[in-house]
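hiii so my PI (J.) wants the whole complex modelled not just the main chain, which honestly fair. so below is everything: two entries, each one labled with what it is. i double checked the lines twice but i was tired so who knows lol
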Amino acid sequence: MTTTTLSAQAAGLDQPGHGGNRLSWVVSDIATMAKRNILAVMRTPEALFFTTLQPIMFTLLFTYVFGGAIHVPGGHYIQFLMPGIFVQTVIFGAMSSAAGLAEDLHKGIIERFRALPMSRSAVLAGRTTSDLVRNVFVVVLITLVGYAVGFRIGTNFALFVCGLLVILFFAYALSWGFAYIGLSAPNAETAQVMVFPLIFPLLFASSAFVPVATMPGWLQAFAYHQPVTQVVNAARSLMVGGVLHNSGAVWASLLWCVGLLVVLAPIAVRKYRKVA
Amino acid sequence: MANSSQPTLAVEAHDLVKVFPRGNVRALDGVSLEVEAGTVLGLLGPNGAGKTTVVRILSTILGPDSGHASVLGHDVVTQPETVRSIIGLAGQYAAVDENLTGRENIHMVARLSHLSRQVSARRADELLEEFGLANAGDRVLKTYSGGMRRRLDLAAALVANPPILFLDEPTTGLDPQSRQGLWTAIEELVRGGTTVLLTTQYLEEADRLARDIVVIDHGRVIAEGTPAQLKADLGTSVVSVTLGERATLDEAVRLLAPLSEKPPIVEDVVIELTVTNGPKAGADVLRTLDAAEVPIAGLALREPSLDDVFLSLTGHKTTIEQDEDESAPPKKRFGLGRKSDATDGKDAA
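here's the output for the full assembly
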C-alpha cells in the first residue's frame, strides 16, 4: 500500500486537463467507454456470431424462398433486397444499446461511473458509439454475403459507401432511442423484448423487403411516411441507382436521421440523469 | 483549508433529507455527520437505515431533497465535478465490469479519472500488486471469487489516490478471511492519511476500523461517539433466561425486572436482561428464580449483539418493521460488544 502514497503526486488531483481541454476529455471518456463495450462484445464472440447470422439467414430466405414471388422495379430482387437487409441489420445491431445499458444500470457499474469525474454523457455516447463500430463490422460482412448471392453495386463504390454511411447514421440516431428504452427497462431481457414491437412495424411496413405500392392503401400511407422506407430508398438510390434512383429519399433520410438524433439523444441523456 | 490548530473536517453533512417518491420512503430524515481528516467514521445501521443513501449523496450520485453536504469544503450539489475528483467509492455491489480483466477494469477507471495512459497503466500494475491480484490481473472477472472482486473494486476506487474514500458495506457477504484482508487494506490506507467513511452492519467492523461511530436508523442519527464512549455506557452483557413453563412468565418478569436498570425484553418464553456485571447478574437470576421455584430451561450470558443495541436504542430489531411512531427517538449512548451479530450464535457463557 505504500506506493499509493508515493505516487500521490503523480496521479490524482492536479492532473492537467480538468479545465482547459475539457472537450478532449469528453472525447477520451467516450472512447474509453466505447472500448470497454467493444471488449465485452469480443469476449462473447458467440453473441456476435449469432446476431450476424440472423441477417445472413434473412438474406438467403428472401433471395431464395420469397424472392421469386416478389416483383420489383428493375426486375432483380437481390438488387432491391440488399439495401433493405443492410437497414434491417443495423437496426437490430442498434437494439443492443438497449440491452447493454439496461445491464449496466442493474449491475451497479453505472454507480461507479457516476462517482467518477468523467463526462456525464459518455456512458450513453460510449454505448451508441460502440454499437456503431459493431455495425460497421457487420455491414462489411453483409456486403460480402450480398456479393456471394449475386448482389452487385449498380452505381459506384463511393456512392455505395455513402449509402452505407446513411444507413449507419440512421442506426446511430436510433440507438439513442434504444438507449432510452434500455434505461427504462427493469432488466436487459425485458429491454430487448420492449424494443421489438417498435421495430417490427417500422421494418416490415416499409419498402425494405417489398415495394410499398403492393400494400393496401392505408398501410401505404404509413409506409411512405416513416423513416425506414426513406432510408431504404436512399440506400437503393445510392447503392443500386438506375430505376431505383431517388435523390428525394436521400435528402429525406438525412433529415430523418438528424431529426431523430436531435430529439432522441437529449431524451436519453435526460433519462440517464434521472435514473442512474 | 483551515489551519492545523483545529482538526480539519474532511466530510460534512448537515440535515440531509431524502424522500424516495416511490413508496414515499423517507430514506433520510435529517442526518448530520462530520468526518475529521485522516480518520475513519463508521456509519452503522441495519439494512434500509439510510446508510447507502448517505454515501450516494456524499459521492454526488444522488441529490438531497434538503440539507447540504461538502467534501473537503466542496459542496456536493454545486461542485460535483470537484468532489468526484477527490473521492473514491467502493461498495457492496462491487461495481466492476464482468467482461473485462482486472487490469482492464482498473485501467478504465483510471482513464475515466482522467489520468494519462502511462499513469493509468502504472497504477493498474501497482494496485494489482498491492491487492494480491497480480497473477489474476489478466483474467476476465467472471473467473474471480467474491473476495477478489471486492479487492478489485477497492483497488479501482483508489486509482486516483483520492484523499477521501467512501466504502459502502465493504465486507458484507464476504467470508471471514477475505474480510480480514480488506480490513488490513483499509487500515493501511488510513495509516497513509486517507479519510474514510465506512458504512457497515457489523459492530465488530466499526469497532475495529472506526475512530468515531454514527448509528442511524430509519434515516435518523440515533447515537454517536467513539467506540470507547459508546461502550462505556449501556450494560456490556445480556443475560438470557429461557423459562421452563409459560405460566410463570409474568411472575418471572416481575421478579427479574429489578436486576436491570432497563426493562427486560421478553420474547416467547425467553427473558433478556441488559446488565453491567454479567456473571453476578447471572447468579442473581438463578438465585431469584430458584427461591421462587420458577423452573428454567436455559440460562445464557452473552455480549450484546447489534440486535441488542438496536433493540435498546429504538425498540425494534435490526430487521425493518413498520414504525408507527413518528416521534424522533432520543439520542442515547450504548455499549458495543465484540460480537457483531446475533447470527454468530452459540456464545453462551
